[in-house]
Each structure stands twice: as structure tokens, then as C-alpha cells.
């Protein structure tokens, strides 16, 4: 990992800069790559580093570490949360999906936003596991554990999402566990992790306090293309040249 060259922030040491960078790069990768995989429309977002942001809106992905805060500005598909749906959605039984009353399109973006919120702290957790030479395994992580990886605000926003649907605790926990698994698999995917890591290195090499959407997307797409090309070369090396009769 390259030493951070972000503008000096007294309360952030190098390790903390890297943790925050992985957290926000995780959110960014989810917003771009996860949404793209689900064939969802692109959304505009930026990454912002600031020493203290005293007032934030509810539309950002935030990672809070002590008095320091970084955030992905924008990026949510549902803005603002349609709390009115709670009042118009029909009652559902405990055996049903709590999102069943919603249209397929709304359900898809609802789930995508939650997964993207989870990817941030999970990316930070994977980074910490890697530098500590520890196993990054699904059974070692749950929602509560994300509080140790800057996930407080992410969890708060996820709770807001579920307040917009008529889900009881059991329904919420079951749905959230399924979405948590999807977020974990996203972070643990080799191609996605390479993209996140490339974006982190780019962020730490930059002196800017704001990174624009086009720049972020370019870094992620470039990393994914490089991964695909390298895997193709590896397969050709293993299989050898094609032989024709």
C-alpha cells in the first residue's frame, strides 16, 4: 500500500486514512459495479474527505472514525426514502418477503442501495483482516461487527430503509441476512477487490479532497478490464495454444 498523500488531516494517521479509503472505495465500487450488474441506471456520486463535516444530509454514504469523516456524496437510488409506502402497502404475513408489496423495480433498487451500504464497512473489514493476516470469512461477521469498521451511519440508513416497509423484526432479519451475504460475496470477489484496491491507491495518491464520479468510474472500469485480461492470459497459459487438425 502506498503511503497516503491526501492533504494532511491531524486526526488521521496513515492506517486510518487507508481504512477510510477502503470503506469509501467499497461504497463506490458497489454503487458503480453492483448497480451495473443489476442493470440499474447510473447515478452521480463523488468521494469527499473532510476533517469535520458538522452537518450532513441523509443522502450520503458516510464513514465516521472519531472526529474525522469521509463520505460518498450521492449514489443512492432511492432519494428520499418513500416513507409513505408504509401506509399504502398491503399487510403481509410472516412467511412472505417484506418487500413483496413493492414493484419489482422498486424492490431491486431498494436491495441494491442496502447492499451498497453494507459493502463499505465490509471492504474496510477485509482490508483489516488482510493486514492482520486473518481469515475474512462470512461466519466471523454480522451486522453488529460492522460497527467496528465505521459502519454506524450505514446501519442507521439501512434501518431507515426498513422503516419504509411493513416488515416485522423476523422478516427484516431474514432479508437483511440475505443482502449481507450478497454484499460479503461482492467484497470477497477477486475482480471486485482488485477494483476497490486500485481505487484506494488512486485516492491515497491524490491530494484532492473531492474525487468526481467520472474519475472514480474510470478507475473501477480500468481495474475490471485489467483483471479480465489477466485472467484470460492465465487461462491461455494453463491450457496452452489451441491446436487445429
Name the descriptors:
8% strand; single chain; four-stranded antiparallel β-sheet; Methane Monooxygenase Hydroxylase, Chain G, domain 1; 53% helix; alpha+beta; 245 residues; 4 strands; globular
3D architecture notes:
With 245 residues, the protein is an alpha+beta fold. The chain has one domain: Up-down Bundle (Methane Monooxygenase Hydroxylase, Chain G, domain 1), CATH 1.20.58. It has helices spanning 14-37, 85-88, 104-131, 152-163, 169-188, 190-205, 213-239; strands at residues 45-50, 61-65, 68-74, 210-211. The chain has a four-stranded antiparallel sheet. α1 (14-37) crosses α7, α3 crosses α5 (169-188) and α6 (190-205) crosses α7. The protein starts with 13 loop residues before the first helix and ends in a 6-residue tail after the last helix.
What's the architecture in CATH terms?
Up-down Bundle
How many whole angstroms does the radius of gyration measure? Answer: 19 Å
What is the count of structural domains?
1
How would you state the average pLDDT, rounded?
80
Strands of the widest sheet, in order across it, are 2-3-1-4
Classification by helices and strands: alpha+beta
Beta-strand share of residues: 5-15%
Query: What percent of residues adopt helix (DSSP H or I)?
Result: 40-55%
Q: Spans with pLDDT under 50 lasting ≥5 residues?
A: 1-12, 52-58, 83-95
CATH-defined topology: Methane Monooxygenase Hydroxylase, Chain G, domain 1
- Helix count equals 7
User: Could you state the order of secondary-structure elements as H and E?
Assistant: HEEEHHHHHEH
List how many beta strands DSSP finds: 4
